[in-house]
Every structure is written in structure tokens, then in C-alpha cells.
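Next up, a chain.

===
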Amino acid sequence: MKKILSILVLAFAFVAQADAQKFALIDMEYILGNIPAYERANEQLSQVSKRWQAEVEAIDNEAKSLYKNYQNEAVFLSEAQKTEREEAIVAKEKEASELKKKYFGPEGELYKKRIALLEPIQDEVYNAVKGVAATKGFQLILDRSSEGAGIIFASPSIDISNEVLAKLGYSN
């Protein structure tokens, strides 16, 4: 009998504890999609990326062209000329590779530009979410747009995305 009573008390305490916690959901994709500055920053990143990609491809195409010319003329070239052309091809390929790494590498220019453009917007959204959470007394806010969240169903009544947008000054 004591065991059953202990289990009931523990179960009641757990339910009371769970009931006391407040949580909410946001849809970060929806929020960011409604912030014009975020859309402009993404467009700017896209344009820069395309420009840099074209630059890398131009150098890569030069290397391919040098290689094709080398293949076509190889039978007519001396050993010294072959070596010189091979070195020029390798140098051009290396130049393309280094430029690609400079622009698109893990710590490349595109990464730095993305941080510079998007991080202030993301910080502003984070602070707005934090402000809404503090005002409404939420202990936990989940992002329903995250792939790893695993939220199968959520009541629209706990989605505070529009409140976050309103706090940022964007209302729907």
C-alpha cells in the first residue's frame, strides 16, 4: 500500500511540475521570410556567390583550354615546351582551386559575408523571441521549422511567430 501511495505522490508531483512549465513554438522560416532585410541580405549573398562562382569558372575554363591546346600540340612540342605548358596548366588549376577555397571555403569570403549580413538579423530575432518568452513566462520555445525538431502536431494556439514579428515591428 505504501508503494502505491508513493507512486501516486510521485506521479502527481511530476504532473504538477510538467503543468507548471510553459512552452511555445515559433516558425523561424516564417519569421525570417517576413523580414524584408533578411530577404535583401539573402539576395545580396546570392548575387555575390554567382559573381564569385563565375570568376572561379572562368579561371577553370582557362585551365581546360590550356590543357586542350596542350593535347593538340603535344606532338609538335619539345620536352622543355611540354614542361613549360604543363606547369602553366597546373598553375592555372591551382589558381582556380585557391580562389574557390578563398571564396567558398569553410572560413571563406562567402561565409564571412553571410555572418556579417545575417547574424545581426538573427540576433534581433533571437532577442525578440527572448523578450516574448520573458513577457509571457515561457521556459521553452521550439522552432517548428527545424528538421530535427520532430514535431508531428502542434496546436496553432501555442505558435508565437506572429508575436515575435510584431515585437520586431513587422505585423501580418
